[in-house]
Amino acid sequence: MGEARQLGGGDRAVLVALARSAPDLAVDITEVDPAEVPNLLRGGRLDLALVHEYDNVPSALGAGLDLEPLLVEAVHLACPASWNPDREITLGDHAESRWILANPGTLCHSMAVRTCRAHGFEPRVAHHIDDFAAVLRLVAAGAGVALVPHLGVDHLPAGVRLAALPVGRRTRIAYRRGSADQPLFAAVAAELHRAAAAFRADDGIRLDENS
């Protein structure tokens, strides 16, 4: 099983559940670049993968692959808590702020740039960081502001404020067409849905309405 990005602690929960419900099933988890997922699936090096897409950056896996909806999460604007603590945070307030973005070519980078442009400004990029925990630590240190998906906030450092934006990130299960009825897919997909159900209880996450 491959992951374009981790599902919080869901991958560990899936492994524990599978060890109990399907002890003869061997599951290996590998984090891969999202751009590599289609070829790895088609080539048989992955049996299924968790992939993400943002409302303003749709996925393009190409032919021969299917997607099963899993969950939708909010995207947050993260800024230092010292920034106008008595005011509601808006994206437009940070048109002149220093920004922390993911590296160019990633979905997260494209999402952040498109979101800022939709609000009438180009982000002034100060740092390129792919790790959400490191991004939040930089925000806490006053090094800039950032956009972070809900599941990227495993731990919110002191000194960081979050504001949910009208942008969502979808997590889906990608697999080779025709493999949905195989025991491997059925067992792993069932446990992924069970793990996702725990996250859906959170205010920032909901069931994908397309599922």
UniProtKB/TrEMBL annotation:
Phylogenetic placement of the source organism: Bacteria, Bacillati, Actinomycetota, Actinomycetes, Mycobacteriales
SUPFAM superfamilies from the UniProt entry: Periplasmic binding protein-like II
Superkingdom as given in the UniProt entry: Bacteria
InterPro entries linked to this entry: LysR_subst-bd
Annotated family: Belongs to the LysR transcriptional regulatory family.
PANTHER family per record: LYSR SUBSTRATE-BINDING (PTHR30346:SF29), TRANSCRIPTIONAL DUAL REGULATOR HCAR-RELATED (PTHR30346)
UniProt GO molecular function: DNA binding; DNA-binding transcription factor activity
Pfam families, A to Z: LysR_substrate (PF03466)
CC terms in the record's Gene Ontology section: protein-DNA complex
Gene3D superfamilies, sorted: Periplasmic binding protein-like II
Limits of the LysR substrate-binding domain: 14-196
Keywords linked to the UniProt accession: Activator, DNA-binding, Transcription, Transcription regulation
Organism encoding this protein: Nocardia farcinica
Keyword DNA-binding: yes
Presence of keyword DNA-binding: yes
The protein's name in its UniProt record: DNA-binding transcriptional activator XapR
